[in-house]
Specification:
- The complex is a heterodimer.
- By secondary structure, chain A is α/β, with parallel strands linked by helices.
- Chain A contains 16 helices and eleven strands.
- Chain A folds into three domains: about 210 residues, NADH-ubiquinone oxidoreductase 51kDa subunit (Rossmann fold), CATH 3.40.50; about 90 residues, Ubiquitin-like (UB roll) (Roll), CATH 3.10.20.600; about 100 residues, Up-down Bundle (de novo design (two linked rop proteins)).
- In chain A, the strands form three sheets. A five-stranded mixed β-sheet of chain A has the order 6-5-11-8-9, with no helix packed on it. Chain A has a four-stranded parallel β-sheet with strand order 3-2-1-4, sandwiched between helices.
- In chain A, a hairpin with a 5-residue loop joins strand 5 and strand 6.
- Chain A is globular, with a radius of gyration of 22 Å.
- Chain B is α+β, with helices and mostly antiparallel strands.
- In chain B, about 40% of the residues lie in helices and about 10% in strands.
- Chain B has a four-stranded mixed β-sheet, covered by helices on one side.
- In chain B, strand 3 and strand 4 form a beta hairpin.
- Classes of the chains: A alpha/beta, B alpha+beta.
- At the A-B interface, helix 7, strand 3, strand 5, strand 11 and helix 13 of A face helix 2 and helix 5 of B.
Chain lengths: ~425, ~200
């Protein structure tokens, strides 16, 4: 078992309080950074550590920080805790069980980027997480870790917890800023990128919750220590959220580059498939990433290897689907999500997600035609790269990847009028309506 | 009606943000908590506190699914039906709840005790299937557990005048830089029903 970084001591009793967190080296990184590091040195440190964003895109964090426009406008930090990607549940755990680690990460990042107001945008549905983050902020204020002249360093910071209200799109960085400014969560046109013109028009850095939770450990133990985990290009560890048909679902922190098979089958982690069935498909990074077939089980879980296998590491939500699952029904469920969550700003996504669901429903109920499968691909083709923000691109992933992998099963639905496997396999074939 | 106290809290929120309209989402939560759902009067109060038009406030409120335009049941049950919960049998739960409560997903019982909703991924896939009751999680749910839960709710609803208890929403009460916040009103313990 490797030494854990973000989830270290996560189940220790009282870790969510200031006192408890201090017993586990809490706020030592902040004290060290304020004494020993200039802000720019901190950015260099994070660059050297090789940390890449844990939200989904995997952009190098230090590089992102160094892109902030150098002007006299007020800078802002937004911590993206709007975790809503289906299959992902790491940020919720980090916020609920160790909120001070997040707050310390936010303070350190604010110091490095010379930010004076930081926002933690917590997803609306996660009421307990919001309460925990809230309390951690209050305690940090009382202890002098946030506020004016933090620990006598002359650095001032305010941290504000802002609660969302149920919109997946607000996890997209520009929609998150719109939401924070009190508007409907529509994504903005890029460029200008947030690093130049972001929240309230100021240069803005936006990082995922897990990314910021990693910062205190990097500052405490050094960049080389962090870079010693993981692979050449994907350094460090990552919290993988394992769910679906596995015996022991849950959050497991592993060094990047660990094979998918270890995560799913190792007794310490997933422990194998429920009922010892075979794997049909694996979604490696939340429902927005293309699914992989069972033949890709030996893919190392790092950014490059998963990309080479034809998918993305995304948010780290690994969903395992067993052989007795109807793939059309599962994809329909994922497409339902994108239809409901499409914000409606751009036409290809608003209409495309709707049509995908219509076609998938028709196929699933056994009323589909063979040409519907090609029509589905066509709809996806007309969305991918033609939509305003990544949500529309993501919506096509489950559909195109499943048709590529399981075209036979789609065709079976058309020919037999029912499902190949699952509960729908036993029903009478559909008659043409 | 929105109380004067709530209106004052909304005005306090405005001073917290660099831009007044940033306070619209937390202010909407305050209005909703007061009345159980968003009314015209509630949105009017938000508009006045922040200095927006009512239409502007309404346009924001209607974008987000957690601002309710209709009265919600005293027990609001949200069942996750995204992929991980689907793989672990959430449809069975929805069906069971529909049968027991006598309503379809998306509806509220006629006396206003229960609202049943299916919602998108609740970030609890490791303990699927899950549901939330008034924003608190119930994890690894089975149909048998639902029967026990429903019994408990029935007892609770009979025992007292019920207050919905979604107690977070406005964020911390930080004002200008460096002012130490006092514990906000909603941070106090929620009164529990008599056992």
């Amino acid at each position: 078992m490797p030494e854990l970084i973000v989830t270290k001591d996560i189940d220790a009793p009282g870790l969510d309080t200031l006192e408890g967190y201090r017993q586990y080296a809490g706020y030592q990184a902040l004290e060290k950074a304020l004494k020993e590091y200039q802000p720019d040195e901190l950015i260099e440190l994070v660059k050297k550590s090789g940390l890449r964003g844990r939200g989904g895109a995997g952009f190098p964090t230090g590089l992102k920080w160094s892109f902030l426009a150098k002007n006299d406008k007020t800078r802002y930090l937004c911590c993206n805790c709007d975790e809503s990607e289906p299959g992902t549940f790491k940020d919720r755990m980090l916020m609920e069980k160790n909120p001070h680690q997040l707050v310390e990460g936010v303070i350190l990042t604010s110091y490095a980027c010379r930010v004076s107001v930081a926002f933690i945008y917590v997803r609306g549905e996660l009421a307990h997480a919001a309460r925990q983050v809230q309390r951690a902020i209050e305690e940090a204020y009382a202890a002098g870790y946030i506020g004016k002249n933090i620990l006598g360093s002359g650095f001032d910071l305010d941290v504000i917890m802002h609660r969302g209200a149920g919109a997946y799109i607000c996890g997209e960085e520009s929609a998150l800023m719109e939401s924070l400014e009190g508007r409907r969560g529509y994504p903005r046109l890029k460029p200008p990128f947030p690093a130049a013109i972001g929240l309230y028009g100021g240069p803005t850095v936006i990082n995922n919750c897990e990314t910021l939770c990693t910062i205190p450990a990097i500052v405490r133990n050094g960049a080389e220590w962090y870079a010693s985990f993981g692979t050449e290009k994907s350094k460090g560890t990552r919290v993988f959220c394992l769910s679906g048909h596995v015996k022991r679902p849950g959050n497991y922190e592993l060094p990047l580059g660990t094979p998918l098979r270890t995560l799913i089958y190792d007794e310490q982690y997933g422990g194998g498939i429920l009922g010892d069935k075979q794997i049909k498909a694996i979604i490696p990074g939340g429902s927005s990433t293309p699914m992989l077939g069972a033949d890709k089980l030996d893919t190392p879980l790092d950014f490059e290897a998963v990309a080479a296998a034809g998918s993305m590491l995304g948010s780290g939500g690994v969903v395992v689907i067993d052989e007795d699952t109807c793939i059309v029904d599962a994809v329909l469920r994922m497409s339902d999500f994108y239809r409901d969550e499409s914000c409606g700003k751009c036409t290809p996504c608003r209409e495309g997600t709707f049509w995908m669901v219509q076609l998938l429903e028709r196929l699933e109920r056994g009323h589909g035609k063979l040409r519907d499968i090609d029509l589905l691909m066509d709809v996806c083709d007309n969305m991918y790269g033609r939509v305003f923000c990544p949500l529309g691109d993501a919506a096509t992933s489950p559909v195109t990847s499943s048709i590529k992998l399981f075209r036979d099963e789609y065709e079976y639905h058309v020919r037999a009028g029912r499902c190949l496997v699952g509960p729908g396999a036993h029903r009478a074939p559909a008659t043409t309506p | 009606m929105i109380s004067e106290q709530s209106k004052q809290r909304m005005r306090d929120l405005v001073s917290r943000y660099p831009l007044a309209r940033s306070a619209v989402m937390p202010a909407l939560y305050i209005a909703q908590r007061e009345e159980g759902h968003l009314t015209q009067k509630g949105m009017q109060a938000v508009a006045e506190a922040i200095g927006l038009t009512v239409n502007d406030v309404e346009s924001v409120a209607t974008f987000y699914t957690m601002y309710y335009q209709q009265p919600e049941g005293k027990k609001q049950i949200k069942v996750c039906n995204s992929i991980s919960c689907y793989l672990r049998g959430c449809d069975r739960l929805v069906q069971h709840l529909e049968e027991r409560l006598g309503i379809k997903a998306g509806e509220t019982t006629p006396v206003g005790n229960y609202t049943l909703r299916t919602v998108e991924c609740l970030a609890s896939c490791g303990t699927a299937p899950v549901l939330q009751v008034n924003d608190e999680f119930v994890e690894n749910v089975t149909p048998a557990m639902l029967d026990v839960l429903i019994e408990g709710w029935e007892r609770e609803l009979k025992a007292r005048k019920f207050e919905p208890d979604t107690a977070v929403g406005e964020g911390n009460s930080v004002g200008e830089i460096g002012r130490r916040p006092t514990p906000p009103w909603w941070f106090l313990p929620i009164p529990q029903p008599p056992r």
